[in-house]
Amino acid sequence: GDAISASRQKLESQISTLYGGRLAEEIIYGPEHVSTGASNDIKVATNLARNMVTQWGFSEKLGPLLYAEEEGEVFLGRSVAKAKHMSDETARIIDQEVKALIERNYNRARQLLTDNMDILHAMKDALMKYETIDAPQIDDLMARRDVRPPAGWEEPGASNNSGDNGSPKAPRPVDEPRTPNPGNTMSEQLGDK
């Protein structure tokens, strides 16, 4: 099952997913405004790609051999105290293979976000309105339908004649999204100055 093994396709999809937040920042705000928020995602994606190459045999150039050590600080494919059984050339190929895996899936994630900007913006709008998104709302977003309120949502200011029945209440809305002006950045549209 999934807990025991994962396919190359699933692992590569995980790498693409890990870069989604960083790429959304880059696409919306521009490369000069990318934050450090994705640092852990980058670490996880790099470790996953390195394991694919050095432990799980997902490199055509290197084949199904174990190149990893159990412990030690690693920079891409190369241990700080490189194993004596690994040549500089092998370490260089590991670095190239890890980088190629990352770049392929980074570019794949960028293309998916670029092709689905309408969904990204609709998700932002739903989050601004409801503060949270549940599975049925994700289904609406992916089907490009109007996003329904989350389960238990009550419109702010809606009266409930029966008193407090314990059902979830709508959180206080964040400032309503402003009508975007074509020249404004996303940050300006959201009210960040």
From TrEMBL:
PANTHER family: ATP-DEPENDENT ZINC METALLOPROTEASE YME1L1 (PTHR23076:SF97), METALLOPROTEASE M41 FTSH (PTHR23076). Keywords: Hydrolase, Metal-binding, Metalloprotease, Protease, Zinc. GO terms for biological process: protein catabolic process; proteolysis. GO terms for molecular function: ATP binding; ATP-dependent peptidase activity; metal ion binding; metalloendopeptidase activity. Its cofactor is Zn(2+). This is ATP-dependent zinc metalloprotease FtsH. Residues 181-193 have a biased composition (Polar residues). Signal peptide: none annotated. InterPro entries: Peptidase_M41, Peptidase_M41-like. Residues 2-140 form the Peptidase M41 domain. SUPFAM superfamilies: FtsH protease domain-like. One of its GO terms (cellular component) is plasma membrane. Residues 147-193 are annotated as: Disordered. It comes from the Bacteria.
